[in-house]
Specification:
single chain; about 270 residues; mainly alpha; 10 helices
Length: about 270
């Protein structure tokens, strides 16, 4: 009975739409308005304290989990015709905040919690921005899937900006290195998942885009097809680490400028 209700609900919400164009009106409007709102709301919530921080992050995590369940059901019932689509297995880099937002606030302040916050303020913040810079992975021919992808990645930006404004971000080179180590470890886990589920997925699974399937990401897909997935992966991992490092450096510079201005005003 529940199975039929779920399928009926998914089918009732499978509203088709013309796939939004990259840098078209929908993409640009959502991106600009969303980023402004992320910064504004993050600024307003920056001083809510530990209890408020716990409630906020776990609420965001809960929202991400609920919407991810909807996405999984949509692909299972409507796209896959009751066949699980392994390529959307929820373990991409941009899926990680769904778990960290539920775990990190429950930990005692310390290295592990700070490491999780550091990962979300570097790698996940980078992932959120990159999704809007290169939007091929977030535009779909269905209203709910497109909204899910756009809202999801905007939430990654919000989480990262909020944690930075709340002084919970990566503040030292060691913090960044821990975040980078976490990313590389997750890549290893993702590769293990890809290999383990390679046959059952028909070679379609590619968590973190590290292979052995060819990458679908712009630029890296070219190298995957021309040279091989292994070469694309060897380019992809350091490139992402560099991008996250740039986020870390820019954040550090902006924070130091803010402290200098505050000191002058005293």
């Amino acid at each position: 009975m529940i199975d039929k209700w779920l399928e009926a609900f998914i089918e009732a919400t499978a509203w088709k739409m013309t796939t939004p164009r990259a840098y078209g009106p929908f993409h640009l409007t959502f991106t600009l308005v969303g980023i402004v709102l992320c910064f504004f709301i993050a600024w307003k919530l920056r001083g809510i304290g530990e209890k408020g921080n716990r409630i906020l992050l776990m609420s965001v995590g809960g929202f991400l989990i609920i919407t991810e369940i909807y996405k999984q059901l949509f692909y299972y019932y409507h796209i896959g015709d009751r066949s699980y689509q392994w390529w959307i297995f929820p373990f991409q880099m941009c899926s990680i905040p769904m778990y960290l937002c539920m775990i990190a606030p429950l930990l005692k302040p310390g290295k592990l919690q700070k490491g999780m916050y550091g990962f979300m303020t570097t790698f996940n913040l980078l992932g959120g921005f990159m999704a809007f810079i290169e939007p091929s992975g977030i535009v779909h021919g269905y209203v709910t899937l497109t909204l899910h992808a756009f809202v999801w990645h905007m939430m990654l930006i919000f989480i990262g900006v909020y944690l930075i404004m709340s002084n919970k971000h990566a503040t030292t080179s060691r913090d960044y290195l821990f975040a980078a180590f976490t990313f590389v470890t997750l890549c290893a886990v993702a590769f293990t998942i890809n290999v383990s589920l390679w046959n059952v997925s028909g070679g379609s699974i590619n968590m973190f885009f590290v292979g052995p399937a060819n990458s679908s990401l712009a630029v890296f897909s070219f190298f995957s097809q021309k040279v091989g997935w292994w070469f694309s992966t060897l380019l992809y991992i350091p490139t992402v680490c560099l991008g996250a490092y740039i986020i870390f450096i820019v954040t550090d510079i902006l924070k130091k400028q803010k402290w200098k201005r505050s000191a002058k005003n005293k």
